[in-house]
Amino acid sequence: MERRNDARHDVVRTHTEPAEVLRDVRWAKDLRSAVRCSVVLLVLLLLIDWEADTLTAVRGALWAALALLLFLILFPSRVTVGNGWLTSRGLLRRRRVRTDLLVSVRCLDGVSQRLVLRDVFGDRVEIDPEVLVNNPGLWHRLDRDAHKSATGGSLLCGQTALLRLSERIDRETARTVFEVSGLD
Fold first, then answer.
1. Predicted confidence (pLDDT) per residue in 15-60, tens digit
2. Per-residue pLDDT tens for 107-159?
3. Is 153 left (phi over 0), alpha (psi -120 to 50) or beta?
4. Domains of the chain by residue range
5. Pairing status of strand 102-108 against strand 85-89
6. What contacts 94, CB < 8 A, 6 or more positions away?
């Protein structure tokens, strides 16, 4: 009968276990919305052309290309966070940044607000801050790793942006709690 060394087995097991990976829980819903909007646009354009008796194969192909273009614009990036990293995956490319070695965090305002993360290796990821607001687990992992970057001395720019985002997430969380409890 063989005896196994429990301590050694546990050490080996902890090194081979994968770290917990968190994903955007609303990504599938956003993807369905993008598909739905594109299909509705295509159907409406085809119906209007058909009703006006001007529908041809060329015009149908043009409307299909327009609906495809709308889908490409609306396609949501899939944000995944692990221990020390964040990945944003779009249709054609995947970008990854080390969140425990961040150099800067910036919030870009404009038509759509973007959070830009850069690490010491020069990698850059842009994400919608709404993803972090809607996924507290993703935010807490990113916040914890950003604090590691700040304590390690690599985070040179972005403490204010992270603080503003943290306050926004706290406000949204409190508002949700009040709505669910009926205290709003």
1. 444 568 999 999 999 999 999 999 999 999 999 999 999 999 999 9
2. 888 788 899 999 999 999 999 999 998 898 899 999 999 999 989 888 888 88
3. left
4. 22-74, 80-181
5. unpaired
6. 87, 88
Distance of CA 157 to CAs 97, 104, 177, Å? 16, 5, 32
Look at residue 106 and give its three-state secondary structure: strand
User: What are the phi and psi torsion angles at 24 (to 5°)?
Assistant: -65, 115
Query: Could you tell me the strand order of the sheet in which 102-108 lies?
Result: 102-108, 114-119, 124-127
Q: How far is CA 33 from CA 26, 93, 98, in A?
A: 11, 21, 30
Residue-wise pLDDT tens digits, 56-82: 999 999 999 999 999 999 999 999 999
Give the CA distances from residue 130 to residues 119, 135, 183, in Å, rounded to whole numbers and listed in that order.
21, 8, 24
Neighbours of 71 (CB within 10 A): 19
Q: DSSP letters of 114-150? A: EEEEEETTS-EEEE-HHHHHH-HHHHHHHHHHHHHHH
- Residue predicted with more confidence, 3 or 57: 57
